[in-house]
Structure formats: structure tokens, C-alpha cells
């Protein structure tokens, strides 16, 4: 790996990930020399070659510019983190099989880094964390007789558009001390249009509430869809009547597969904090996760699925990206595997799934199609007269059966 950074630059841990790369490129664009630190060596190699390991709109041009200006250093060993300058943590913070947060992931990361960090250094949590984690980290470090400045500055981006959102979205900044807060604010002022300075627990709740609210919004739309279907009505007509030129309904999203690595996970983090008394969040999880099974049950009541080949269009968790993490498309695939004669899957962006079949083959070989991810490329497809399930309301009415 290349030599260590000079003082005054910064390190992004998890820098080759979905949260890390936009941050790395944003800081590099404004002149920082950034240590892209990640245990994923394959992703580091891809970045060093001038390519992105996943879709991030506007990222490749910035990456090539940063490489040309020698503003990126790529490391995978904690020993290569220079003991000066800010260190920003962007690792994933999962929930376990019991839907409880796994704080050990943060602790293990810190324990690996700590021998290579210097007292007085700024340590920024960028990952979404369980309320109280930032204060816990500060206390944990002090118990180890380490004096680092601890801040929490949560990411606030839409998948695939992180670079744009960093330039347009106010950034939340918090620190466990005045010095940590001040240094974190100075750091993020270099890339953010506006700073919102609060206390760490306030920042933690603000981030979790944002994701949980969005998840509940999707659940509301999905529940409306299911109620309308149970009444034997066309949800598209109801949705249009509800929203068209009516300002108070403008924010209601369309129904669809509410998936991905953040929304459900962070809603469950709040539920865990509330000792499972977060009834809205728990209900949202049941609705959103249950939508797939409702659709399968509906199809089973209308068709003899055991004699049919089902084609799934779009395996990413949302439109026009290549990220399959926590995608409900795979829940569809698993549920239908025991019901249908065969299940075929396709996606124009995903490159990590060896089972994918070319789109034309899926349309030709399938008896029924399900739109799982509303990729732009699917809007005007010729489905060869095959029936199509489109919960999203994305396609034109022709051939759509649900």
C-alpha cells in the first residue's frame, strides 16, 4: 500500500463503501488528500484503477480527477492510518437476528484503530447508530485512558446520489465536547451548504427518525394498496383521485418494495431503544416485509403457479442502482421458488448475481412477470402480451394485472 498521509489530511474508514466513497470524493474535490481505508481490497483495487465498484452518479469524473491530483491514498491495514487529522467512520451498523442493534461492530472497529490513533485526534462517527452510542464511545475511550475528540455527524444521502446530496443537504454536526464539535463543524463546512449543530443524542435521534419516518410513509402507501386490493378496486384510480392537484396529499409515496440496508434496520433500532413499544415502526415492518407474501398469495389464488414460469424484473432494492443489499426482490424469488415451476431473474445494473438471465430471455420464457425494481429501462418495454404485476404503478396500464 502507498505511504502514509501527511498531517492535516483525513482518513475515511469504510472509504470504499456506499457511504464512504461520496464522502471521500467530496473532500478530495475541495483539496483534501484522503486515506481511503477499507478491508475490501477488491474495491480498493477497483478505485485505484479509476473505476467505481458500484453506481454513484457523478462519481467517476471526480475519482479520475482525484487520482490525477494525487489526492487519494488506499490502505487496508489500521497501521497505515496516520495518527493525525480527522478519522471518519462509515462502516455498516447492522441489526442481529432478533432485530437488535449490534454495537460490537463499532467497538471492534475502534479497537482495531485505537493503537494507531493519537490523543487529540478527531474521531467522527458517520454511521447511523443506536441512541447513546456516541456518548458510550467517548466514555469507552476515556476508560482506556485515551483522549480523542469524538463527534457524530450522520450521513444523509440517497443511494447513488450521495455526491450531489452532500453539496445540497445540510449536515448535522455534534460532538461530545466543545472542541470536538468545533473541529467537526470546521471539517464539514468545507463540503456542506449548511451545518446544523446539536448534541450527540439529538443527532442520533434525528437520523433514526428520518429513516423511520420514511419507512412508515412507504408502509402507509403499501397498506392503502392492500386495502384497496381487498376491496376489489384499482389502486391506481384511487391514488390518482387522492393526489391529483391536491397539495395535502402531495407527499404520499407510491406503494412498492420498501427495502435496502437502512430504512427497516434503523426503524428496528428505534424499536429496540423504545423496548419494542414503537408500535408504528413495528407495524410498518410487518406491512412492508409482508407485501411480497400478499402478492404471492394473490397470484396463487388466481393462477396455477406450479405450471408457470415467473420472471422477476429488477433485483436491486430500488430503481436505477446496482445495490442488492436487503432487496425484497430476493424475498420474492425465495417465496415463489416453492410455488412456481421456475423463477427467472434479471437486472440491467446488478453484476454480482450469477443467476441473472438476459431481459429478453426472461420476457420470452416467462408466463407472468413481476416488476420488482422500477428501473427507467423498463418503462416502455414490450412485454409480449404477458401479464405483469406492478405494485409501484410505474408501467402503463396495458398488461398490468395488479
Give a short overview:
By secondary structure, this protein is α/β, with parallel strands linked by helices.
Features:
402 residues, alpha/beta, Rossmann fold, 2 domains, 8-stranded mixed beta sheet, 4-stranded parallel beta sheet, 13 helices, globular, disordered N terminus
The CATH superfamily of the largest domain is known as NAD(P)-binding Rossmann-like Domain
From the spread of the alpha carbons, the general shape counts as: globular
Give a quick account of the main beta sheet: strands, pairing sense, barrel closure. Answer: 8 strands, mixed
Rg, nearest Å:
23 Å
DSSP strand content: 5-15%
Count up the domains.
2
Question: pLDDT below 50 for ≥5 consecutive residues: which ranges?
Answer: 1-7
Q: Write the CATH fold name of the largest domain.
A: Rossmann fold
Helix content: 25-40%
Question: What is the CATH C-level name of the largest domain?
Answer: Alpha Beta
CATH architecture grouping of the largest domain? 3-Layer(aba) Sandwich
Q: Could you give the order of strands across the largest sheet?
A: 3-2-1-4-5-6-7-8
Instruction: Give the beta-strand count.
Output: 12
Helix/strand structural class: alpha/beta
Element order, helices and strands?
EHEHHEEHEHEHEHEHHHHEHEHEE
Termini separation = 53 Å
Task: Determine the number of helices (DSSP H or I, runs of at least 4 residues).
Answer: 13
Mean pLDDT: 96
Amino acid at each position: 500500500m502507498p505511504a502514509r498521509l501527511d498531517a492535516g489530511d483525513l482518513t475515511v474508514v469504510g472509504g470504499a463503501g456506499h457511504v464512504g466513497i461520496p464522502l471521500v470524493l467530496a473532500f478530495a474535490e475541495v483539496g483534501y488528500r484522503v486515506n481511503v481505508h477499507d478491508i475490501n481490497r477488491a474495491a480498493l483495487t477497483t478505485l485505484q484503477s479509476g473505476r467505481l465498484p458500484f453506481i454513484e452518479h457523478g462519481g467517476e469524473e471526480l475519482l479520475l480527477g482525484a487520482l490525477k491530483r494525487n489526492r487519494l491514498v488506499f490502505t487496508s491495514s489500521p497501521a497505515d492510518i496516520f495518527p493525525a487529522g480527522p478519522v471518519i467512520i462509515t462502516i455498516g451498523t447492522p441489526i442481529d437476528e432478533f432485530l437488535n442493534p449490534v454495537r460490537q461492530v463499532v467497538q471492534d472497529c475502534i479497537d482495531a484503530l485505537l493503537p494507531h490513533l493519537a490523543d487529540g485526534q478527531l474521531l467522527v462517527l458517520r454511521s447511523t447508530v443506536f441512541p447513546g452510542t456516541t456518548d458510550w464511545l467517548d466514555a469507552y475511550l476515556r476508560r482506556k485512558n485515551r483522549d480523542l475528540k469524538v463527534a457524530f455527524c450522520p450521513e444523509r444521502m440517497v443511494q447513488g446520489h450521495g455526491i450531489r446530496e452532500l453539496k445540497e443537504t445540510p449536515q448535522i454536526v455534534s460532538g461530545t465536547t466543545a472542541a470536538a464539535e468545533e473541529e467537526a463543524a470546521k471539517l464539514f463546512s468545507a463540503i456542506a451548504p449548511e451545518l446544523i449543530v446539536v448534541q450527540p443524542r439529538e443527532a442520533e435521534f434525528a437520523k433514526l427518525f428520518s429513516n423511520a419516518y420514511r419507512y412508515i410513509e412507504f408502509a402507509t402507501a403499501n397498506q392503502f394498496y392492500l386495502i384497496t386490493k381487498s376491496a376489489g378496486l384499482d389502486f391506481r384510480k384511487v391514488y390518482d383521485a387522492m393526489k391529483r392537484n391536491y397539495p395535502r396529499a402531495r407527499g404520499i409515496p407510491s406503494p412498492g418494495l420498501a427495502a435496502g440496508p437502512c430504512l427497516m434496520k434503523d426503524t428496528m433500532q428505534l424499536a429496540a431503544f423504545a423496548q419494542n413499544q414503537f408500535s408504528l415502526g413495528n407495524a410498518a415492518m410487518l406491512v412492508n416485509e409482508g407485501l411480497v407474501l400478499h402478492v404471492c398469495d394473490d397470484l396463487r389464488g388466481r393462477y396455477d403457479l406450479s405450471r408457470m414460469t415467473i420472471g422477476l424484473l429488477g433485483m436491486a432494492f430500488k430503481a436505477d442502482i446496482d445495490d442488492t443489499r436487503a432487496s425484497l426482490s430476493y424475498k420474492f424469488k425465495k417465496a415463489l421458488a416453492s410455488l412456481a415451476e421456475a423463477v427467472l431473474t434479471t437486472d440491467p445494473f446488478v453484476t454480482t448475481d450469477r443467476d441473472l438471465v438476459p431481459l429478453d430471455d426472461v420476457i420470452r420464457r416467462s408466463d407472468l412477470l413481476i416488476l420488482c425494481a422500477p428501473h427507467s429501462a423498463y418503462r416502455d418495454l414490450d412485454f409480449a402480451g404477458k401479464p405483469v404485476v406492478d405494485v409501484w404503478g410505474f408501467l402503463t396500464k396495458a398488461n398490468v394485472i395488479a
